[in-house]
Amino acid sequence: MYATKLNDYIHLIDLKTAGYDSFNGSYVLKEDNVAIIETGPTSSIPNLLAGLKELDIQTEAVDYVMVSHIHMDHAGGAGALLHNLPNAKLVVQNRGARHMVDPAKLWVNSKRVLGEIVDLYGPILPVSENRIIIPEDRMQLDLGEHVKLQVIETLGHASHHQSFYEKTSRTLFLGDAGGIFLPKLDAVIPTTPPPLHLETKQSSLEKLTQLNPEMLCYTHFGPARNAVSRLHAYSKQLALWARVVAESTEKGDDLETTYAKIVELDPSMKKAEEFIKTHTMLRQSVVLQSIQGFIQYSRKDT
Fold first, then answer.
1. Torsion of CA 145, 147, 151, 152, to 10 degrees
2. 14-73 residue pLDDT tens
3. Pairing between strand 162-166 and 148-153?
4. 65: helix, strand or coil
5. Please, which of 41, 51, 188, 201 could form a disulfide with 2 given CB 3.0 to 4.6 Å?
6. What is the pLDDT of residues 206-228, one digit of tens each?
7. Which domains can be identified in the chain, with CATH numbers?
8. Quick check: 53 and 130 in contact, CB under 8 A?
9. In the Cβ-directed half-sphere of 217, how many Cα atoms lie within 13 Å?
10. Which distant-in-sequence residues (6+ apart) come within 8 Å of 112 by Cβ?
11. C-alpha 270, offset from chain centre
12. Residue 51's closest CA among 34, 68, 33?
């Protein structure tokens, strides 16, 4: 089983990327029209298509594929997915659109940052320019009488990041704007790779808070209630990391020492410490890169 029902018109598909359960997900919204939020990498597209089949959604019925940003774990499979969805359009932020049309540079940069992990994700296939929609901030897509999906520009994690807000159920699809959620531990891990623009990221969190959502849907991974308090908590967590990393960098600590100090002072990271040790992809492609983002930020700020 890949698909889980969240309400009458929102489902979560566990993409099981690289064999990891509950790490990477796509959300399917269905009323009169159908939208998919996040594709995952190319290697996960068979699982996404299997999830659609479980939901009895024909590939021809999908109208929109929406990605929060073009990092491989969120949009690397867009080209492969659209190959299977003849009527769908890709909704992607303006700065990311050209890399979906010609992914050569995106592939090189991904290989440089992620190393061997890109081999687990698979190649990035191009998307035809005529199948791309570049939204304005606050643009709304009506999927039916009850499902109103709004695009919210949320820069910070990346310069091409956007989130999506379903107004009727007050559900917010975060992308990486709110970190990585580990539901079994009720813990959040920041996603702050270099280059980190902390002030921009914090402004985006405030923008999302002002929507007054009831539920957060994390790409990594799953739904969580108490949305506003979680957004506030994440903002405070980022401020804590900034302080710890700045002090550690000033002392000349190495990466592992800095990581240990974060675990000591961040209750969420303390809960997740043992899990992170067993999750190679999470440790290498998220946690250590996030610390590197803060290190770069602290050096630039001095």
1. 120
2. 999 989 999 999 999 999 999 999 999 999 999 999 999 999 999 999 999 999 999 999
3. antiparallel
4. strand
5. 51
6. 999 999 999 999 999 999 999 99
7. 3-233 (3.60.15.10), 235-301 (no CATH)
8. no
9. 26
10. none
11. 22
12. 34
Q: Which two tokens stand for residue 44?
A: 């996960």
Reading the block at residue 184, the tokens are 């079994």
The tokens describing 165, both together, are 């807000």
CA distance 245 to 237: 12
Reference 197, options 177, 224, 225, 211; nearest CA is 177
- Residue with tokens 């967590």, as numbered in its chain: 237
- The answer to whether the CB of 95 falls within 8 A of the CB of 68 is no
Task: Look up tokens 């659109």; give the residue.
Answer: 97
CA pair distance 17, 44, nearest whole angstrom: 6
Average pLDDT, the chain: 95
- SS3 of residue 162 by DSSP: strand
Supply 88's token pair.
């769908």
Quote the strand ranges of the chain, DSSP E: 3-5, 10-14, 25-30, 34-37, 62-66, 89-91, 132-133, 140-142, 148-153, 162-166, 171-175, 180-182, 187-189, 215-218, 222-224
Residues in the chain, total = 302
